[in-house]
Every structure is written in structure tokens, then in C-alpha cells.
Amino acid sequence: MSPFQRHIDACNNLPSPAGFIPFRIGAAQVGWLGPELARALTFFPREFHFDAEGVALAGRLRSPGTRAEALATTAQSLARRGFFTLRGEPFDVRAAPDGPVLAMLDRGAIPAFGVMAQGVHLNGLVRRPEGLHVWVAVRSRSKAVAPGQLDHLVAGGMPAGLGPEECLVKEAAEEASIPAGLAIKAKRTARLSYVMRDNQGMRRDILHAFDLELPEDFTPIPNDGEVERFELWPARRLLEAVRDTDAVKFNVNLVLIDLFLREGLIDAASEEGRALRRGLDQGPSVPPGATSRSHRGGRPPAAGRSSAAAGHNRPAAPHSSGAAAGRSTPAAAAARNRRAAAAGRHRHWPRRAPGHRVPARRRSRRPRRPRRGGAVAGRRSHSRRHGRDASPAPGRRGRRGPRQPAPRRQRYGASWSGPSLGP
Known about the structure:
Layout: H1 5-11, E1 21-25, E2 28-33, H2 35-41, E3 48-51, E4 54-57, H3 64-80, E5 90-93, E6 103-106, H4 110-113, E7 116-128, E8 131-139, E9 150-151, E10 154-157, H5 164-176, H6 180-183, E11 187-198, E12 201-213, E13 227-234, H7 235-244, H8 252-263, H9 271-280, H10 319-324, H11 330-342, H12 382-385, H13 408-411
Parallel strand pairs: 1-4, 7-12
Antiparallel strand pairs: 1-2, 3-4, 5-6, 7-8, 7-10, 8-9, 8-13, 11-12
Helix pairs in contact: 8-9
């Protein structure tokens, strides 16, 4: 196996979404939730609904703005409980890389919700007579991700409301003091993606790669404190660092391997080159083999168990069996919930685990205690109800006077031996 392949495999370490639960906005699936986070979302029944196909944002939230507010409130609560750390930078939530914006979510919560994120990476190239050179950034030791490791000249996540080109110009000025007039000359070269599982959840990242030819007299200057310094390395030295060490940030390796293939530092026509190209192009926007029905049932799998072990990959029972037995099937219940949500009259779920079924009330089989005094004991006649007879019925409180004790035989249901109580 190629020594470069390990970097591709490390970024694509999730071959199946088993154990994750689909997260939807409307009919579009936008993310994947871990079991622990899914259980935590059951305490937000106004914002999140559970059905046979996973977790969905409430149907009453119809605009990206209202969805963003609901997600922001939920994210703040989950951050206080230690699920993730908020970054204060909202990202767009999309079902596809070029699809419409459905909501916004804080960057720190993106992996926990399994939402697709996008970023830009810029190769700063200097062509000298002795060969190609590449500007390399040394990340700050205070960075939350990959502190002190090697990075691109410019790299950053794409915040809400910006496209790749606009984000590149912004990051170039902030990180390396590159003027906008120079940054706009960058050429887009590739769009890479990967699906990675880490301690925060599922990372589904889209990397927009750019090349920028820089003059020899240009020296980038750190501007925002995220980079300690910049160094100009020969491309061959950088290739050896990627091949033999782990000094480069994990996803930067993918963009550099693509650069080495395009510049001929790795023979793209060789068996190694073709295998690396297939690895770079494999990452879709969702895990391989994933569908909207990869998780059957609304109940999250138990911690430490895959969806197959939790029984979520069992074939669904025919709908006719539930109908024949006079019971509602889960699919029919989910359909009713979706219709009710679309009509704006969804009954929010109680605070219980998703998929929990409340048992039907049963009629008590304990024999009823016989009425005192027979079937007509204690019933008032028409005249008593209208006050024409003030005498109270035996054992009952009348309209006037205190409660009178009933005869002993009446207490045990014996026949009444007193005056007739007929009409």
C-alpha cells in the first residue's frame, strides 16, 4: 500500500453509518446523530420530533431564520451539558453541497449533528529555477484542532452566507495579509470530501482547493494569531513530510496529495497514483451505502451497540399484519405525524425516550363491588330531586339534615325491607 494512502484512510474511517440516526429538516436529510445526542434531544419536544425514520426538526419551523434560532437555543443548552464547545461562528446547513440553505448551526456543533461543512484551502506556490516551492503555515499552539502542526498558506471554514471565492478572499486577508487583488487570482483546482468519525461525532467535510502563483518577493505575514509563522519549503521536502510523518494537519494531507498528483511529484498514471486518485474522489456528501432508512425505527440504539445489534436492520413487518390485528403500524403512525405536522397541528411528544409506546388502558378484571341497597339504592326520585320531599334517602345526605346511617343489611347489598322506593 502507498505510504500516502494512510492519510486518505484516516479521513475516511467511517465505512457505514451504523449506530447513527438520520437527522432531517423537512423531507431532506441533513445530518447524522449519535445515540447520546439523540437521547438529549428528547428533552426538546417542541423543536425535535421522532418517527420511524429518525429525528426531524419541527414542521412549524418553516424558514431558515426560525430554524437557526431553534438550533442555536438547543446548541447553547447542549454545550452547557458538555456535548461540544461553541465557536461563535454559524455555518450554513444544506442537504447537498450546492443545495439551498435550510438553516444555520454553530460551527462547534457541526460534527455532533453530522451536518456537512465546507472549507477552503489555498496552495501558495512559488516557481523557482530549482523547482516548485510551497508556502507552509505553522499553526498556533493555542488552536483547538491540530495545534502546532503544518497547514496551508490559507485555510478556513466557510461561514454562513459566503461562497468559496468570497471565503478565500476573507481568509487570505485575515490569516496571511494577502491583498484582495492578489487573492482573487487564485484558481480553483479540486473539490475533495471525506467522512470521518471522531470524538465529537461525524465530520462530513467538503474541501475547495485553490492554487495561487505568488511572486518570489512576496512574504505572507500572520495577522489573526492563528498562525505562528510561514515558511517556504521545496515541494519535495513537503512531500517527504506528508509521506513519512504526521506533522501535517489531517485533512491538509488530502489537498497536498492532490497537488503532488497534479504537479507530477507522484506519477498519476502509475498504479499508486490511480489508487490515490480513487481514494481522493471516493468521499461523497454522505457515508457510503447510507440511505434515509439506514436506521429503522425512531428509538436510538443503545450506547456501544451498532444499529444491527440493536435490531434496526431487521426487515420491516408487512403493514397488513398490523391492520389485520386492529393496531396502527409504526409506518402508519409516522405518516399521520407527518400529515399533522404539515397541517400545523402536530401534538408534541412527551418527554420520554423516542419510540416509547404507551400501553393501552385495560379494563379492570376485578369484579365490581355491589351497590349498597340494590340497583336503586341511593337514587333520588323526581320529587326528591326537585325538593318536594325533603326526607333523605337511606344512607345518603339529603337536601336538609345530617347524614343518616343506613341499616346494616343495606351496607352489604341485601334487599331493602323498608318502604318502597318505586316511582
